[in-house]
């Protein structure tokens, strides 16, 4: 709205997602679940997309019952172009539109942390395929639809480890670690997101990122202790602390924001 008078603006309304159709991949994961719940609470029709084993259909059904609004669950492998195309068709059949896309899936080869010198090609390829190619396909197929419609918001999820390198001391005395393929693939997600932010800016499709960090998931005690030592806020985060950033980026509250990487990392990269 062309005005200099803020009193005519309903600022709370800017955060609403009423009737927006938001597709969320990795919907059944730790952060994905918080994304879905938050988007639903702000009024969205959420499309929960995840691998069949995660049962996104059941998750969507529970979300739909809780919020009294139509949601959709869809099983897919994000590395399959055919399956991502099928997702788009199903969402359009069900709701007739798509307003937002969140790429929240990930693969870390299930915390199998081979030393870098021994990383197998197979594990490298799996991580890069899921994290980077999966994001590419979702952006290409769903983002292109939004660009054609002349509106939409995409939120991709890179990692602190595409911004800085992992501090190897964080993992001392634990069975955890961060594979190089994860950092590399997330660096690709970051670069792809910036590219698309510029590529689709004139089509009114905004492309932003959220970078979570150290989201608590019943971690080993030693890991929590190490983490507190290196974190300015001296603690891990919670999935519900990541999701509010998503509401901002998906909604009209961020109508002039594109190409941004919102760090929800407790100041991890600030020092
Ligand atoms: N948890 C953290 O501390 C943290 C930190 C930084 C970044 N991130 C990023 O945030 C996002 C969410 O992380 P999370 O902790 O919720 O992860 P998670 O492992 O709990 O969830 C990931 C989800 O992706 C799904 N998935 C895996 N492979 C898939 C495929 N081929 N097709 C479709 N879905 C697939 C899984 O089934 C799972 O539900 C990821 O991109 C992750 O890299 C997480």
Please describe what this structure looks like.
This protein is of the alpha/beta class and 271 residues long. Helices cover 42% and strands 13% of the residues. It has one domain (17-165, 178-219, 239-264): Rossmann fold, CATH 3.40.50. Strands 3-2-1-4-5-6-7 form a seven-stranded parallel sheet, with helices on both faces. The longest helix has 29 residues, at 121-149. The mean pLDDT is 96. Residues 25-26, 28-32, 50-51, 54, 76-79, 104-107, 130, 134, 157, 159-160, 212-215 line the site of nicotinamide-adenine-dinucleotide (NAD).
Keywords, please?
single chain; seven-stranded parallel beta sheet; 8 helices; binds nicotinamide-adenine-dinucleotide; 271 residues; alpha/beta; Rossmann fold
Report how far apart the termini are: 39 Å
Question: What structural class do you assign from the helix and strand content?
Answer: alpha/beta
Widest β-sheet, arrangement of strands = 3-2-1-4-5-6-7
Fill in the CATH topology: Rossmann fold
> Mean of residue pLDDT?
96
* Distinct helical segment count: 8
Which spans have pLDDT < 50 for at least 5 consecutive residues? none
Helix content: 40-55%
List bound small molecules.
nicotinamide-adenine-dinucleotide
Whole-number total of structural domains: 1
CATH architecture type: 3-Layer(aba) Sandwich
Report the sheet with the most strands, covering strand number, pairing sense and barrel closure. Answer: 7 strands, parallel
CATH superfamily: NAD(P)-binding Rossmann-like Domain
Task: Encode the helix/strand succession as letters.
Answer: EHEHEHEHEHHEHHE
Kindly estimate the percentage of residues that lie in beta strands according to DSSP. Answer: 5-15%
Could you tell me the radius of gyration in angstroms?
19 Å
Number of strands: 7
Specify the CATH class. Alpha Beta
Overall geometry comes to: globular
């Amino acid at each position: 709205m062309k005005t200099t008078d803020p009193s005519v603006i309903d600022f709370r309304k800017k955060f609403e997602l009423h009737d927006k159709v938001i597709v969320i991949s990795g919907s059944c994961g730790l952060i994905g679940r918080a994304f879905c719940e938050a988007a639903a609470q702000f009024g969205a029709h959420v499309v929960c997309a995840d691998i069949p084993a995660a049962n996104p259909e059941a998750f969507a059904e529970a979300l739909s019952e809780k919020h009294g609004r139509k949601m959709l669950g869809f099983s897919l492998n994000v590395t399959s172009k055919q399956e991502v195309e099928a997702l788009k068709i199903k969402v359009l059949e069900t709701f007739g539109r798509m307003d937002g896309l969140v790429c929240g899936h990930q693969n870390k080869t299930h915390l199998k942390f081979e030393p870098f010198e021994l990383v197998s090609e197979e594990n490298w390829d799996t991580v890069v395929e899921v994290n980077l190619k999966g994001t590419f396909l979702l952006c290409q197929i769903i983002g292109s639809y939004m660009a054609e419609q002349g509106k939409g918001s995409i939120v991709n999820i890179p990692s602190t480890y595409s911004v800085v390198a992992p501090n190897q001391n964080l993992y001392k005395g634990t069975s955890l670690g961060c594979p190089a393929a994860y950092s590399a693939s997330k660096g690709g997600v970051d670069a792809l997101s910036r590219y698309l932010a510029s590529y689709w800016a004139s089509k009114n499709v905004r492309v932003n990122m959220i970078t979570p960090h150290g989201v608590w998931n019943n971690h080993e005690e030693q890991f929590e202790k190490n983490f507190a030592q290196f974190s300015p806020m001296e603690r891990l985060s919670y999935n519900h602390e990541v999701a509010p950033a998503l509401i901002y980026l998906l909604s009209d509250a961020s109508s002039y924001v594109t190409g941004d990487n919102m760090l929800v990392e407790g100041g991890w990269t600030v020092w």
